[in-house]
Amino acid sequence: MNYAERRANVVRQMRAQKVHALLVSNPTNVYYLTGFKSSNASLVMTGSDAALLTDFRYEAMLRAHVATQRLTPIIMEDGLAKALGAYCQQHRIRTLAYEADYLTVSLLQTLQRKAGRLAWTPAKNWIGPVRDCKEPAELAEMRRAITIAQQAFLAIKPGQWIGLTELAAAELLEGKMREIGRASGLHAERSFDSIVACGAHAAEPHHHCDETVIPRATMLKIDWGVRVNDYCSDLTRTLFLGTPTQEFRDIYAIVLRAQRAAIAAVRPGVPLCEVDAAARAVITKAGFGDKFGHNTGHGIGLQVHEGSGPQKRSTAMAKPGMVITIEPGIYLPEWGGVRIEDMVLVTDTGRRVLTSVPK
Length: 359
Prior knowledge:
- The protein is α+β, with helices and mostly antiparallel strands.
- The protein is built from eleven helices and 17 strands.
- The protein has helices spanning 3-16, 27-34, 59-66, 80-90, 105-114, 127-132, 136-154, 158-161, 166-183, 246-265, 272-285; strands at 21-24, 41-46, 50-54, 72-75, 95-98, 119-122, 188-190, 195-198, 218-224, 226-228, 231-232, 235-241, 323-326, 329-332, 336-339, 342-346, 351-353.
- The longest helix is centred in the C-terminal third of the chain and has 20 residues, at 246-265.
């Protein structure tokens, strides 16, 4: 991962807005920009320097890390405010941008009181657009996460779900993820709490698994993902255990058409709201517009939900290197619901569906 180039891309956006210094507090953004992971780290970036601040617990890790990175190491001996104030004074920083969508009000107030005479300004979304477009090394990790997720799912025969509780079914699937990861020499863990929802529970988009036993002749919605080397996968499939009812067939067909329409709309330069609209139009035309209440998808990478995605109110454009999910659904209370989700890479000329579990 080229952390220096990532930081340079963010600094270029800062300079375009005539901002000279940025405090990065979000741990995921600190990791993305430095490769350093801890429970207490901050990053200050200027046009000429980047300082990584942490406490004494991580001193050895920090010294070893900065030896291979162009970073100034700072051990906070008396908290962030004092260390930050000293750094800003040394580098003559008078105005400091901060991540308003992450930094708490109480911490900001503490920094304003104790970090010296600094003007504080909310940062624009400079890091998100850089994270949106995945590097080849990031895509490689995401493909590993996809492969393990798919192999784990396919290792469970449809009949094996029957008779398990939803919780036991989720545990079975997650156990397969870990097992297949170990066999590949990788540490694989779930990227979020797996969703296993049978029957009417499938009407809840984010159902919490419980002790309900999965019977025969029912629908089963499974939403799962794997995290490998910090990168995530996310898929959803809706099964019918037995002979599907005609109503299930009809609704499934509508959702599948909606997903295909959204995937077909993905290409560089297309507003992501239009990708959402492509799926929504199919479902609305079929008479279920009010039964599709969530966005068509989201960005994915270091976090399951990150950056830009196909959403109603998105102002972002699809760009090469973006990885998004496409996951329309129809949810009918007391009956159930169908959602189909795949991960899609925006390429230079169109799109590539990264996931391949049969639908």
